[in-house]
Amino acid sequence: MPVVRIACKENDPNSAMAAAAVMARTLGMLSQPVAKPSAIGSRPEKTQPKNPNELTIKQHVFPVRCIEPFVGQRRQVAVFDMLRGKHRHAKPDDHIFCAMRAWDQPTEMHMKHIEDSFQAVVRPILHGKVNSIASSQKRHIDSMFALWYMRTRYRRLDAQEVQLGGIEGNELTLAEEESLEKNGYLFARAGGKMPARQLNGVQLHKRMADYARDLAAVDGWASFTRRVGSLAA
C-alpha cells in the first residue's frame, strides 16, 4: 500500500479511526476486479475561483508528449470515438484523452514522475539516437504501461464523495481542503465523507504498482517505427 497522510485535528483521539476507515474502504475497492473503462461519470468538483492552488483539473489519461510525435500538419491525430462510434481529428489536449479531476493532486504528481522517467527513455529513440531499450530502463516502461492501463480504467468517478464508516470528519473551507490536497493530505469532511478522487488516487497507486510488478516478468520491450514517430512496445 502507498503511504497515505490523513489530516486530523491536533490531539484528536479518533485519528486512528480515520486511518482505519480509509484503509478498510481502500482494501474493499482493491478486492474488486480491475474495472472496465467507463463511458459516463459524475461532474468533477470545482476549485476556488481562478484555481489559486493550481490543482490539475484536466488530467491526461494518455500523455500529451506521447501523442505529439503522431500529429499531422494541423497538429491533430485521427481518433475513433468509441462512445459516439465515429472517426474524428483531435489535438493532443483534446478532452477525449483526459479525465476531469478523477484523482487527487499527489497522485497526479506521482504519475508525472512516471511519465518523466518514461520520456527520458524514449526521447533518444524518437530523436534517432538509439534504437533499443536497455535492461536497466525496462522498469520505467513497465511503470508507464501500468499507468496507461489503470488510468484508462479509473478515469471517471461514479460519485464525487465516498462515505467512510465510524468517523465524524471536520468542517473545512474549500481553501483549507485545497491546501491539504496540495500538500499531500487526505481529509474527511463533516459527516465522514471523503472526496472520491482521493480514494481513487490511493487505489491507482496500488494497482499501478502491482501491475508494474507483474510486468517485470515480461522479457523486455522493443521499439518499432511507423511513418510518423516511434513507440515503445
Question: Would you write up a description of this structure?
Answer:
37% of the residues lie in helices and 14% in strands. It is an alpha+beta fold and 233 residues long. The chain has a domain at 101-213. The strands form five sheets. Strands 1-7 form a two-stranded parallel ribbon. Strand 3 (77-81) and strand 4 (86-90) form a beta hairpin. The longest helix has 22 residues, at 105-126. The radius of gyration is 20 Å and the shape is globular. The model is unreliable at 229-233 (pLDDT under 50).
Characteristic terms for this protein:
globular, two-stranded parallel ribbon, 14% strand, 233 residues, alpha+beta
Short overview:
The chain is of the alpha+beta class and about 230 residues long. The protein contains 6 helices and 10 strands. A hairpin with a 4-residue loop joins strand 9 (about 225) and strand 10.
